[in-house]
Every structure is written in structure tokens, then in C-alpha cells.
Design goal:
By secondary structure, the protein is mostly helical. Among the domains are: about 40 residues, Zn(2)-C6 fungal-type DNA-binding domain (CD2-Gal4, Irregular); about 70 residues, no CATH class. Strands 1-2 form a two-stranded antiparallel ribbon. Strand 1 and strand 2 form a beta hairpin. The longest helix has 28 residues. The radius of gyration is 29 Å and the shape is elongated. The termini are far apart. Keywords: Coiled coil, Nucleus. GO terms for molecular function: DNA-binding transcription factor activity, RNA polymerase II-specific; zinc ion binding. It comes from Corynespora cassiicola Philippines.
Length: about 180
């Protein structure tokens, strides 16, 4: 959204003295970079790096494309969060409703995942859980008083004493 300069006008200071003034409004950029938003400073919206970040030698990144409206950014981000929540619910349901062996296998995959990309890791784990034949029987989440209770697992110390079912203890050499 751009504002145009005001039309030139006359401002009366006194009856004998008149002064001509012009007022220009600043150009509003709908998409400031994240660094400028955080600092609450004026951003010129230049890409790939705005002038303010160039001067300060800071990382300059935009949450949206240059042709994307702020409302579209919010809609896209909302959809991403909705998908991530759905994936987390599927993983949660899987861990809650599947036999202990299957739940422990997925838990082990979660613990072995060292990637820093949270949403991508969650999506991969949800896909992995969905692709297992035993996951197809997991019901959708329903908020109800009549929901079945979760399986009671043994205390965590008992789980630590016995090796997971996916670890092969027979191939180790004890020398």
C-alpha cells in the first residue's frame, strides 16, 4: 500500500505571512523482514537483503514471498500448523492405542531422529506410523467422556532393564 504525497497547500501563520508546505507520507511496505520486525525498525523490503540488515550485517529473511499478501501468509502459516497438529495427533494416537511393541518401535525412531527440522521430522514419523499395517486400525481422535482408556505400561525403570524388542542381543561378541 503506497500513500501519495499530499497536495501542496497554503498554511496561514498570520494575515501577512503565508508559507507553502508539502508533506510526504512514508511508503508503507507490507512485508518487512523478520529482523526489522523484531527490532521494530523501518524496513525497505529489498530482497534478498534489506538495506537496514545490510548496514548492520545481520541475517535478513522474510516469512513470505514478495508477491504474497500478509493475509495469505497468515492463511499459509495456519495451514502448516494445522497439518503439524494433525501429524502430532496421529503419532499420539499411535503411541496411546497400539500394542506396546509397536509403540516402543516408534518411540525409538523418535529418539534416534537427530534432525533439527521439527515439522519435517514430525511429518516423516507420522507418515511412517500411517504406513504401518497395524496403524490403519487406529481410530480418529474424538473428544469424549466415553473414550477408551490408554493401556497401562510398566514403570519406566522396568522398560530400561529389558532391551527393546528391535535390538538384536544375540549377535554381540562378549570378549
Amino acid at each position: 500500500m503506497q500513500y501519495l504525497p499530499r497536495e501542496q497547500g497554503l498554511l496561514s501563520r498570520s494575515r501577512n505571512e503565508q508559507r507553502v508546505f508539502t508533506s510526504t507520507r512514508r511508503t508503507v511496505r507490507p512485508g518487512a523482514c523478520q529482523a526489522c520486525r523484531k527490532r521494530k525498525s523501518k524496513c525497505d523490503g529489498s530482497r534478498p537483503t534489506c538495506a537496514f540488515c545490510t548496514r548492520r550485517r545481520t541475517e535478513c529473511y522474510y516469512e513470505h514471498c514478495s508477491n504474497e499478501k500478509p493475509s495469505d501468509v497468515l492463511k499459509r502459516r495456519n495451514e502448516e500448523i494445522r497439518r503439524e497438529l494433525l501429524n502430532l495427533r496421529q503419532i499420539y494416537d499411535f503411541l496411546r492405542l497400539q500394542p506396546e511393541k509397536n509403540a516402543l518401535e516408534l518411540l525409538e525412531q523418535i529418539r534416534l531422529d537427530t534432525s533439527s527440522a521439527g515439522a519435517e521430522s514430525i511429518q516423516k514419523l507420522a507418515v511412517c506410523a500411517r504406513n504401518r499395517s497395524w496403524l490403519a486400525k487406529v481410530p480418529n481422535i474424538s473428544v469424549s467422556k466415553h473414550e477408551p482408556k490408554a493401556t497401562v505400561l510398566p514403570p519406566f525403570q522396568v522398560l530400561l532393564r529389558s532391551p527393546p524388542s528391535c535390538v538384536d542381543t544375540t549377535s554381540k561378541n562378549h570378549s
